[in-house]
Design goal:
two-stranded antiparallel sheet, Rossmann fold
Amino acid sequence: MKESRNRDRPILITGGCGFIGCNLADALAKRGEKVTVFDNLSRAGVRENAQWLKSRQGDLVSIVTGDIRDSVSVIKVVRGARGVFHLAAQVAVTGSLQDPIDDFEINARGTLNTLEAIRLHNPTAPIIFASTNKVYGRLVNDEQIAQVGRRHVPTVPQFASGVAENAPLDFYSPYGCSKGAADQYVRDYARVYALNAAVLRMSCIYGPRQFGTEDQGWIAHFMLRSILGEPLTIYGDGLQVRDALHVSDAVGAWLAVLDNIEAVRGRVFNLGGGQANAISLLELIDEISRIRGAVPSLLFDKWRPGDQPWYVSRIDALGSAVGWKPQIPLRQGLQSLLKWLEGRFAPVYAKELRV
């Protein structure tokens, strides 16, 4: 009976109208969960995502407008939640460089507001936090990188299989600092207050409902520029490598961690596509050219602060803990993103050309 009553309580997703959040909310509702989405609706595309969620899931999803920096509003939505997916954030390195105080208030203070609301008002509720690979910093020096084909690869043996969770933290950029501080707060609240908390350090999640920009969501941004026939700016040499993970696989990981929270409480996991789904910027441009039959126009600019020449996640720890592994190969995932972007943006662009 107690479990039945608990199931009547919603899962709270802060930042739930964003790209990952709305996909998470949709997946939760599909399995019959009630969901409360808490979002300040300030970013491009989030109002559209909110409408999409409501049109698909109706009363299973409640959307509450609020800001993670307002502790009173956070307490109101946390108090009745069965669990919390904490994704609300300032998400761009460039944004943090322009306004580091705002970045801190959203990412670090906003996370502390959420943790305190749980600790004081709902201490049995799990919290899973969206961290980032940026907490590891640059990882390798220029002399520890070699060019192989159209990508950078590290020459240091410890990264031969990717970056594991025990790699030293080296916050780089205000964004890295604010997310890194939040990452460590979540981990420590599990340790000192016995909260059911876990951290997912994400790397390059992509897929439908992603309104990619130059500052964040680079795979969708590259593909959208190609669809619209607009030039791409590459910061650096284009050989920098990331591992990419389709959003449906990311959602599967989040749900698996929630369902196994007592077994993984206090742990930190990398969440990315791993070695099998690693790709450089130039390789992605080649792939977009292949699947679209059109070569994007490229411009090059200097490296930006905090840019990593290479980052690939080791994901075996998460797989061992909750039985998860990526299901969608990169080429298949890119096709699904292209289909969504063309359906969403190509008709608009065609209409503009006719005017």
